[in-house]
Amino acid sequence: MFTQFQIDLYEGNDCYVPPLISDDVATLSPSKNPAFDFCEACYFMAFRDGKPVGRVAGMINRQVNESHGKRTARFGFIDFVDDREVSRALMEAVETWARNKGMDRLIGPLGFTDLDHEGMLVEGFGELSTMATIYNYPYYPEHLESLGYKKDSDWVEFVMDVPDSIPDKYNRIADIVKKKFGLRVLKYKSRKRIKEEYGRALFHLINDAYDGLYEYSHLTERQIDYYIDIYLGLLNLDLVTLVVDKEDKLVGVGISMPSMSRALQKSHGKLLPMGWWHLLKGLKGKNDRVDLLLVAVKPEYQNKGVNALLFQDLIPYYQKYGFKWAESNPEMETNAKVQGQWEYFTNRQHRRRRSYYKNI
Predict the structure, then answer these.
(1) Which of 252, 234, 341, 237 lies closest to 295, judged by CA?
(2) pLDDT digits (tens, 9 = 90+) for 345-358
(3) Residue 196 carries which DSSP code?
(4) Three-point CA angle 171, 291, 161, nearest 5°
(5) If you placed Cys at 224, which of 51, 92, 173, 203 could pair as Cys (CB 3.0 to 4.6 Å)?
(6) CA pair distance 182, 161, nearest whole angstrom
(7) 3-state secondary structure of 12
């Protein structure tokens, strides 16, 4: 019921993309999600006349709190009808729970870690969402702000035209980078091989590259094992680019995936009876949009042109599969290094999302 509520709330909304219910249940389950090794959570639902009208999760990530020296709780998985009494009751429940746990600050929407959905949509309500992002009605931020929540951080998102050819500057930079640093691109045809040879290195690279970003929670070895099995088995390896140095050590990775937005809408969040068929068509069938799920570069190679090397390899595959547009997915609004890579493409900043805070 906790996961199903949001799917029912957005029924008929052409911009909302539901999660797979089974994925959300696994994320919220202490027996399945290894983030519970260092997190705890509590879930609340609001009812009126026996009918669900809202939901929210409260979470505490002890790893992040200890590294930052803070006593911060998170809220997430939040949805509610347009009723101030409902949103107030939900947030007061989380605030009380957090205070009773010794916390003095509440932030969100966030998940347990950065691989969960985060950020409340504040611009771009008329844009089709992606499987990696939250969609919400325009009244959500209005409700939170009326309860005393203030901006903590923003993410921005871009949609780019897939170019007919690799931008000349990308080609020049990529060629220079290969020669100067002795870097090369690796491609795989075997999921088993990429898991065995670079699966763990890939997630360790994410830890290195994202260290210091907003509320980043370092992935543990148990989480890495968990995510290797979940993600690497789904990917079209043509859309996965690894960059390695002279010693074959991983220094950069770019992971893309055909947009699953329409397929997930048709599945209504369920694999059965026919959801699996829609998802398979989304992965294998014709698609005009590609999601840039992840770009990570080892810190000592950032701002040195490795991103150009990644896209020099990926753009021909985007063309091969007939993609017309590419979704950046969320980037911190202050991350000029990441946003600078889109300047060579025709792009539009089409969504903005926000995390809020309140001292409790």
Answers:
(1) 252
(2) 889 999 999 999 99
(3) I
(4) 55
(5) 203
(6) 30
(7) coil
Bridge partners (DSSP) listed for residue 45 = 55
Which pLDDT band holds residue 341 (cuts at 50, 70, 90)? confident
Q: What is the mean pLDDT of the chain?
A: 93
Look up residue 352 and give its two tokens: 């903005």
Pairing type for strands 289-297 and 150-161 reads unpaired
Residue 7, amino acid: I
Cβ atoms of residues 206 and 260 within 8 Å? no
Q: How many angstroms separate the CA atoms of 83 and 68, rounded?
A: 35
Please, which pLDDT band fits residue 284 given cuts at 50, 70 and 90?
Answer: confident
CB 219 within 8 A of CB 227: yes
CA dihedral (54, 353, 141, 89) positive or negative: positive
- Distance (Å, whole) CA 144 – CA 214: 20
107: nearest Cα among 29, 215, 218 = 215
- Which tokens belong to 34? 């290894």
Q: What is the pTM of this model?
A: 0.92
Contact 50, 59 (CB under 8 A): no
- pLDDT tens across 114-172, in order? 889 999 999 999 999 999 999 999 999 999 999 999 999 999 999 999 999 888 888 99
Six-digit token string for 313: 């390899």
Length in residues, the chain = 360
Residues in contact with 327: Cβ distance below 8 Å, sequence separation at least 6, in sequence order: 130, 157, 158, 159, 259, 289, 290, 291, 292
Q: Which candidate, 178, 305, 174, places its Cα nearest to that of 244?
A: 178
